[in-house]
Write a structure and sequence with these properties.
Elements (H helix, E strand, L loop, with lengths): L6 E4 L25 H8 L4 E4 L7 H18 L7 E3 L8 E3 L17 H5 L8
Parallel strand pairs: 1-2, 1-4, 2-3
């Protein structure tokens, strides 16, 4: 019997795919965010790596992400094989890694949650 591994839910655009020009026409045009494959190789030893994105809503979106990722792995990675799961729905996850998220610490009056602060939010690709 295999050891249980909690799920890490990993966003695609801006986390795996560098997404430097934004959505455009939905084409996956960019490169892998530097360091991702080395991180994933280590993380998969303790976690199930599940990719979930707004693209996950369609078979075509999941196929496009999976094909792009497989191509990039083949071109750029020489380490141990890395296993990813493409989710159709947001998984029940131990943690989520996303470039467009704010951590909630139980305090709705936290200044970071003020609507003005939320409207001013910029992901790392836009800073």
């Amino acid at each position: 019997m295999s050891e249980f591994k909690p799920t890490l839910c990993i966003d695609f655009d801006g986390v795996i795919h560098d997404y430097g020009k934004g959505w455009q026409d939905g084409t996956i045009y960019g490169d892998v965010v530097p360091g991702f494959f080395a991180w994933a190789e280590q993380a998969q030893k303790q976690f199930k790596l599940v990719i979930y994105s707004s693209r996950s809503a369609t078979d075509e979106g999941r196929l496009a992400m999976g094909s792009w990722l497989a191509r990039k792995l083949k071109q750029q990675w020489e380490g141990d094989p890395i296993e990813f799961t493409m989710a159709a729905e947001k998984p029940a996850a131990w943690l989520t890694i996303d470039d467009r998220a704010i951590r909630f610490d139980g305090n709705w009056i936290d200044p970071a949650l003020h609507p003005d602060a939320l409207r001013a939010f910029k992901p790392w690709t836009m800073r």
